[in-house]
Structures are given as structure tokens and as C-alpha cells.
Fold this protein.
Amino acid sequence: MLSSSLRMWLSWCSILWLAQSSFQASVLGERSLTALSNDAMAKLLTTPDPVKNIDPRNPSSHLSKILIPRAPDTQNNTFVRNYLISTLKGLNWHVETDEFEADTPVGRKKFANVIATKDPDAPRRLILSAHFDSKYFPSYPMNQVRLLHAVIQYSLTCLQFVGATDSAAPCAMMLDAAEALNPLLEARMKRIKNGSQLDDEDEDVGDLTLQLVFFDGEEAFKDWTDTDSIYGARHLAEKWDTTYISPHTKRRLMNDVTTELAAIEHLILLDLLGAKQPLIRSSFIDTAWMFDHMVAVEERLGTNGAFAYDEEQSMAPGKWTSYFVKRNKDIFHMGGIGDDHLPFLNRGVSILHIIANPFPRVWHSSKDDATALDIPTMRRWNLILRVFLAEYFELEPKGSKSRSLNDPEEEEADRYVARSVSELSL
Ligand SMILES: *[C@@H]1O[C@H](CO)[C@@H](O)[C@H](O)[C@H]1NC(C)=O
Ligand SMILES: *[C@@H]1O[C@H](CO)[C@@H](O)[C@H](O)[C@H]1NC(C)=O
Ligand SMILES: [Zn+2]
């Protein structure tokens, strides 16, 4: 059931959208994004329950499965990797792993990135990514027997670094987005394969698919250097840069796309998310429009009351504050923060980096566990990502904006909206 206030803002959104759409410029790969229909939006916000997948209180949530110590080349890392693989295979995604070995300051280690693609035949991909490994902390020397007991106690209580914001929560949010968008993505694939999706205007988005990349080995084993960090991202970027797409595969080809790397439209990297009130900054000019659209999605959802959750009223309309630092149109924070995006950025891939800056206070401490996570915050991220991605992929066919015209509540809502909009335009 939709509350009447929810319905009201949904109408409000579609009208605001009409007002805005004429301002959309087409520069730097920027394109206009169409707001979802009311029905699709309402369904997307509630299905699946936006808390279900990121609930640390529920031992079978996606988050709980990931939220264990999972440094590279350990059984737990393999457990999490297999969990990601089986979850996405269960949603009928094409899943592959990129497995390799590399020398680290603590010896040779095995790594495996997980790559899940909704439509492997699509010539271009939007990547949503995060790292799934947790930081390795060395154990203490075990040769002194009298210390053994203390060390074991210490290890059990303090050295169980689980990297809740870094980046278990972002990985769980990615699985949430995959689950929420899956029916819409499948319907879209059917339309594309049937040839009924594409009119001229839609052609650019029609040949695009969503890909999830879970990087292994993001963390340094000792101190962060160029060679001791982002093992998985460095390996995958180099591999894709030298993997030529064969014209003989059944994949639909575009002329300018020659390598797997060149087929990446944008790479969105999530990191250090899940703690209360993060601050996100736009780092790259070519994705400033995507940043702005994410801000606009947040604004629409917040104004409507979609962020208020349970007893928590700090996110109610009029009370919530944005997670995004308003972009100064003249200043771009070029370069940004060292992370998995760098080897892609250096090869020309367009990056949207969604990372809390400043870092969460618990960063790289044993306190980065479930207690660092805020459920209303993670729920809000899920809603923002669901709506942002659905609009990015135009997951609704044109002309499906269905609304019953004779619903008195809705007519009242429309009058209210018309009034608000005319007031706004004064
Ligand atoms: C592996 O994960 C479990 C929780 O599922 C944890 O109790 C255990 O300590 C972890 N093992 C290592 C070596 O970190
Ligand atoms: C393709 O789409 C058209 C129009 O929606 C529909 O009538 C037709 O049955 C579809 N064909 C297939 C093979 O799905
Ligand atoms: Zn880290």
C-alpha cells in the first residue's frame, strides 16, 4: 500500500522531472536520465525490504555473511567469495573470477576478484564495485609460552578486524541493488533481445549492462604503497586493457570498443560506507553529472520522507541533511583518494568514487565492526543506489507511466503538486 503522502511526492517528482528535463545538457558523456514511473518507484523502494540485506542483527543477511575477517588467501575470504558467487548466480547473473597470485610483504598470496555481469553479450558496462577483502593484521609472536594465553585472548577480542564500513557494508549494498533491480534488468534484457526496447534516442543505453566487481586485495599487508595495495584492481585493469574483444564472439560489437577496458562506460566505486552521516565529494569532472544526479535522487527521496525509518526521525523531511558536499562548479578535486579505481583511472576509465571523506572514525581499527554501522544510513544508501541505477539504465520502457486517473486522492495530490511547483517557480 502506498501512503497518500508517498503518492503525493511521487507525482511531485514526475512533475519536477518535466520541469528539469529541458535543462539537461549533453556534454562529457552526460545524458538525461528519466525519472521512474510512480509504480516502479514505489515497488523499488519497498521490494525487497531495504533493511533485509544489510541487517547485521540477522545472521543470514548478506551483510552478516560478509562481515567476518576475510583477508586475502584465507578460508574466510574464500567463503565470502563463494557467497558472492552463489548469490549472484542465484539471481541468474553471469559470474566469473579473476584468480592470480602476487608477491606481498608477507609472502606470495592468492587473490580472486569476483565479476558478475547481468548481460555478458552487451557491448558496454556500467560497473558498480567495492573491495570484499578485509585488512590483514599480523598476529603476535607465538614463541613465548607465557604470552600465549594473553595473545590468544587479545587475538580473539581485538584482532578480529572485520572491516564493516571497509567494505562489507558496500558489498552488501551491491547485492541489495542486484536483487532489487534484477526483475527490471531481466525485463529490459527481454525487450532488448526482442528489439522492442530501442528507439533512436535509447540506443546508447540499450547496449549497456550492469556489472558488479568485488575486488580482492585492496588493503595493504603492511603500509600502503604502489606495490602493497589494490592487488585485485591492478590485476584486473591490466588484464582487461590487454583483452581484445573478438569480432567473432556473439557479443554485440560497437566500432570503438576494442578491449574489455574500453567497454567500461563508467566505474562506480563504493568504499567506507555504512557509518552515520558520511560526506561524499565529487572528484572527477567527467562524472560530475552522475554525482549531481545522485544528489538529485537523494533530494527527491529525502523530501518525500523515504529516509525516515522506525523510531529514527533524524532523516524525516526537513530534518535530514545531505550526504553529498555541494559541488563547486569551478573546482574539481582532481585525483581524489587512493583506492581501487586508480589503475582504471590511469587507463582512461571514467570514475565515480563514492567514499566517505573524512574516513569513518573507526577506520582500520577493531571498532570497524557491526557497531560502527547505522541501519537507517545503510537503508538510505540502498534506496539511493536502487533509484539511481534504475534511472541510469532506463529500466522502465517508455510510455509505461501508468497512473489511474480517477483516484480522488491522487487528483488532490496533483493539485497540491501543481500549487507547489508554481510557488517554486516564483
Ligand atoms: C573466520 O570467520 C569466523 C566467523 O565466521 C571467525 O569466527 C573466525 O575467527 C574467522 N577466522 C579467521 C582466521 O579470521
Ligand atoms: C516482442 O515484443 C512484442 C511487443 O511487445 C510482443 O508482441 C512480442 O510477443 C514479443 N516477442 C517476443 C519473442 O517476445
Ligand atoms: Zn581499508
User: Anything to note?
Assistant: The mean pLDDT is 82. DSSP finds twelve helices and six strands in the chain. The longest strand covers residues 94-104.
